[in-house]
Specification:
Elements: H1 8-16, H2 22-29, H3 33-46, H4 67-83, H5 89-98, H6 107-116, E1 148-152, E2 158-162
Antiparallel strand pairs: 1-2
Helix pairs in contact: 1-3, 5-6
């Protein structure tokens, strides 16, 4: 959802004016009271420059994986592919855990590293395999389904409990 841009004169009016009815002003200008008080505080602290748009960029970025770790991930990917094994991020994560690393990167970090190196091309959401088999039968009553739980008592008698929702 995009942000609406409010004219500087409305911001200045909201920040500098001493209004008797803040709610009425906000309704007329189409702004929230939170925004009104934000502009007023900024104007009091920073003057006219406080009413300008500020960057919403995060203060810090996620650090990249160390290059030696990424090299090992790529090496493991090639090795598993050559052997015919699954070489996805989850498999690589499990192999790194077996190597007893101190800090094994998460599966998503491994995916990002492989993507950065060009080993993974993003694909649109795939249909789940279960959606390929339809739950349709040729004739009515050809398939029945029951939701129950089965227990075996101490004397060997089998007991069923039908689960109801």
């Amino acid at each position: 959802m995009g942000r609406s841009v409010t004219a500087m004169d409305v911001r200045l009016a909201a920040a500098a004016a001493d209004l008797a009815n803040v709610s009425e002003f906000c309704r007329e200008q189409g702004i929230s009271r939170t925004t009104f008080y934000k502009w007023r505080t900024r104007y009091r602290n920073d003057g006219l420059s406080g009413l300008e748009e500020k960057s919403r960029r995060p203060l810090s970025s996620r650090p990249l994986m160390a290059s030696d770790v990424e090299d090992r991930i790529v090496q493991l990917r090639k090795q598993l592919t050559d052997q015919g094994y699954d070489a996805g991020p989850a498999s690589i994560h499990d192999y790194l855990r077996l190597e007893a690393w101190d800090a094994v990167p998460s599966v998503s970090s491994i995916w990002r590293g492989l993507h950065r190196r060009g080993f993974i091309t993003p694909q649109p959401k795939k249909r789940p395999r279960s959606s390929f088999k339809s739950f349709v039968y040729d004739r009515p009553n050809e398939s029945w389904q029951i939701d129950d739980t089965q227990w075996q008592l101490a004397d060997g008698t089998v007991v069923y409990r039908r689960n109801r929702r």
